[in-house]
Amino acid sequence: MTRTEEFEGLRGLLFSIAYRILGSVSEAEDAVQETWLRYESSATPHTSTRAFLSAVVTRISIDVLRSARFRREEYVGQWFPEPLLTDPYEDPARSAELADSVSMAALLLLERLSPLERAVFVLREVFAFGFPEVASAVGRSEAACRQLAVRARRHMEAGRPRFEADRREREELAGRFFEALREGDVDGLRELLSADVQMVGDAGGKAPQWGSGIFGSDKVARVLASSFPPFLRIGGTLEPHEVNGQPGAIFRDRGDKVLATWTLDVLDGRIQTVRAVINPDKLGHVGPVANAWEAHREAKEARRPTR
After folding, report:
1. What pLDDT score was predicted for residue 108?
2. Domain RNA polymerase sigma factor 70 region 4 type: where (predicted)?
């Protein structure tokens, strides 16, 4: 097997590690590319290509995350990870851990960890790397990595929300929700939302959004029922699609350009949180990006009664 073939066989794993550490599709892709460049220029033979490449992409991701933290502190409004439509790495033995770790809620919890804690948690708890491999990847002793893993696990378990595990039930609920949304059905929407539901968006100051969020089933249902039919009238579309391993959707304008992605957190048969990524800088990997301000203006015009 050539070096290129070895690398391509591990590309999905490398991206999945980097994305969970960084919460950014574009930065994860850059980290994988930099890993390839370092691998290509390395003349030293490696006992395990998987271990070597995983360590390299982890170290690169840690460095990127440290610099990204400063940018995120100055971010306008709520920060969400870039939406991930498909996780390229699959492992049936780790399917539950992989799916849970890529959810928006889990990635936001990971933001609370230090870069080292985050990397150790991802390698150990998500991908089941042994501590010798984890220690090599992050440049710490095995004992230190065990302590980092304990702290990270404690933080994650303390804040981890408990979402509906049954995929079929979640998808069925999401289907009913999006159908009620298309119809502008206030009552239909309200019965699918938890009493304390929250609808929050990440626009980064570069697209229209709902201020700091909309809270409570009645208010969320009314806002959705009044705003979505006009969006359809101007040619907007809603495409149900799994996003970050959760029920979600991609919203497009009449030219099929991407306006936003949504994810739905589901618990006890109700939608707990609607998270929208609207920042155009975070949507380029989904497809050509729409002018959200123009679509918002047209939808607002469409809401006005005709004379």
Report:
1. 94
2. 105-156
